[in-house]
Protein backbone atom coordinates (compact mmCIF):
# COMPACT_ATOMS: atom_id res chain seq x y z
CA UNK A 1 0.00 0.00 0.00
CA UNK A 2 1.16 3.48 -0.82
CA UNK A 3 -0.47 6.62 0.46
CA UNK A 4 0.27 10.07 -0.75
CA UNK A 5 -0.86 13.33 0.75
CA UNK A 6 -2.07 15.34 -2.20
CA UNK A 7 -2.73 18.40 -0.06
CA UNK A 8 -3.35 19.31 3.51
CA UNK A 9 -0.40 18.75 5.84
CA UNK A 10 0.70 22.33 5.22
CA UNK A 11 -2.24 23.90 3.39
CA UNK A 12 -1.28 26.45 0.78
CA UNK A 13 -4.26 28.52 1.85
CA UNK A 14 -6.19 28.66 5.11
CA UNK A 15 -9.01 26.16 5.29
CA UNK A 16 -7.78 23.99 2.42
CA UNK A 17 -9.31 20.52 2.51
CA UNK A 18 -6.66 17.80 2.97
CA UNK A 19 -6.73 15.08 0.30
CA UNK A 20 -4.95 11.76 0.84
CA UNK A 21 -4.66 9.22 -1.97
CA UNK A 22 -4.53 5.57 -0.91
CA UNK A 23 -3.28 3.06 -3.48
CA UNK A 24 -2.82 -0.68 -3.54
CA UNK A 25 -4.03 -2.93 -0.75
CA UNK A 26 -5.19 -1.74 2.67
CA UNK A 27 -4.95 -4.76 4.93
CA UNK A 28 -3.59 -6.15 8.20
CA UNK A 29 0.01 -5.80 7.02
CA UNK A 30 -0.07 -2.07 6.32
CA UNK A 31 -3.16 -0.50 7.91
CA UNK A 32 -1.11 0.85 10.83
CA UNK A 33 1.04 2.88 8.41
CA UNK A 34 -2.02 4.62 7.02
CA UNK A 35 -3.46 5.19 10.50
CA UNK A 36 -0.22 6.85 11.63
CA UNK A 37 -0.07 9.07 8.55
CA UNK A 38 -3.67 10.20 8.97
CA UNK A 39 -3.18 11.09 12.64
CA UNK A 40 -0.64 13.70 11.50
CA UNK A 41 -3.17 15.45 9.27
CA UNK A 42 -5.12 18.29 10.82
CA UNK A 43 -8.87 18.25 10.26
CA UNK A 44 -10.41 21.72 10.57
CA UNK A 45 -13.67 22.16 12.41
CA UNK A 46 -16.42 22.63 9.86
CA UNK A 47 -14.24 21.15 7.12
CA UNK A 48 -12.84 17.68 6.86
CA UNK A 49 -10.66 15.23 5.04
CA UNK A 50 -10.96 13.52 1.66
CA UNK A 51 -9.59 10.05 1.08
CA UNK A 52 -9.05 9.37 -2.61
CA UNK A 53 -9.67 5.63 -2.96
CA UNK A 54 -9.59 5.52 -6.76
CA UNK A 55 -6.41 3.40 -6.71
CA UNK A 56 -7.32 1.22 -3.72
CA UNK A 57 -7.47 -2.35 -5.00
CA UNK A 58 -8.30 -4.23 -1.80
CA UNK A 59 -9.49 -3.41 1.71
CA UNK A 60 -9.94 -5.99 4.48
CA UNK A 61 -11.60 -5.59 7.87
CA UNK A 62 -8.44 -4.07 9.36
CA UNK A 63 -8.48 -1.39 6.69
CA UNK A 64 -12.16 -0.74 7.28
CA UNK A 65 -11.38 -0.34 11.00
CA UNK A 66 -8.81 2.34 10.12
CA UNK A 67 -11.38 4.16 7.98
CA UNK A 68 -13.94 4.03 10.81
CA UNK A 69 -11.34 5.44 13.21
CA UNK A 70 -10.54 8.31 10.85
CA UNK A 71 -14.26 8.99 10.45
CA UNK A 72 -14.69 9.15 14.25
CA UNK A 73 -11.64 11.40 14.66
CA UNK A 74 -12.91 13.82 12.00
CA UNK A 75 -16.33 14.00 13.65
CA UNK A 76 -14.76 14.58 17.09
CA UNK A 77 -12.84 17.52 15.59
CA UNK A 78 -16.07 18.97 14.20
CA UNK A 79 -15.20 17.97 10.64
CA UNK A 80 -16.13 15.24 8.19
CA UNK A 81 -14.49 12.45 6.27
CA UNK A 82 -15.50 11.92 2.66
CA UNK A 83 -14.43 8.82 0.76
CA UNK A 84 -13.95 9.62 -2.91
CA UNK A 85 -13.85 7.53 -6.07
CA UNK A 86 -14.40 4.11 -4.48
CA UNK A 87 -14.40 1.25 -6.96
CA UNK A 88 -17.58 -0.74 -7.54
CA UNK A 89 -16.48 -3.73 -5.48
CA UNK A 90 -15.61 -1.64 -2.42
CA UNK A 91 -18.85 0.35 -2.77
CA UNK A 92 -20.81 -2.89 -2.89
CA UNK A 93 -19.03 -4.22 0.21
CA UNK A 94 -19.76 -1.01 2.11
CA UNK A 95 -23.43 -1.26 1.13
CA UNK A 96 -23.69 -4.92 2.15
CA UNK A 97 -22.37 -4.28 5.65
CA UNK A 98 -24.16 -0.96 6.14
CA UNK A 99 -21.13 1.32 6.00
CA UNK A 100 -22.75 3.32 3.22
CA UNK A 101 -25.04 4.64 5.98
CA UNK A 102 -22.06 5.86 8.03
CA UNK A 103 -19.60 7.21 5.48
CA UNK A 104 -20.09 10.13 3.14
CA UNK A 105 -18.98 9.26 -0.37
CA UNK A 106 -18.53 11.09 -3.64
CA UNK A 107 -17.82 9.66 -7.09
CA UNK A 108 -14.88 12.06 -7.60
CA UNK A 109 -12.19 13.73 -5.52
CA UNK A 110 -13.19 17.11 -6.94
CA UNK A 111 -16.80 16.56 -5.85
CA UNK A 112 -15.68 15.54 -2.37
CA UNK A 113 -13.52 18.65 -1.96
CA UNK A 114 -16.33 20.89 -3.23
CA UNK A 115 -18.75 19.22 -0.81
CA UNK A 116 -16.51 19.95 2.16
CA UNK A 117 -15.61 23.48 1.05
CA UNK A 118 -19.27 24.39 0.63
CA UNK A 119 -20.12 22.92 4.06
CA UNK A 120 -17.72 25.29 5.82
From TrEMBL:
Q: Which GO terms describe its molecular function?
A: anti-sigma factor antagonist activity
List the residue ranges forming a coiled coil, or say none.
none
Q: Which residues form the STAS domain?
A: 19-116
Q: Name one Pfam family in it.
A: STAS
Q: Which CDD domains match?
A: STAS_anti-anti-sigma_factors (cd07043)
Q: Which family does it belong to?
A: Belongs to the anti-sigma-factor antagonist family.
Q: From the Swiss-Prot or TrEMBL record, give the protein name.
A: Anti-sigma factor antagonist
Amino acid sequence: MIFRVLSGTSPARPGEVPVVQVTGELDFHNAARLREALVAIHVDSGKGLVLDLSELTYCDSTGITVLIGVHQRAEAAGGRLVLAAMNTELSRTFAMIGLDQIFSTEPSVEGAVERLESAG
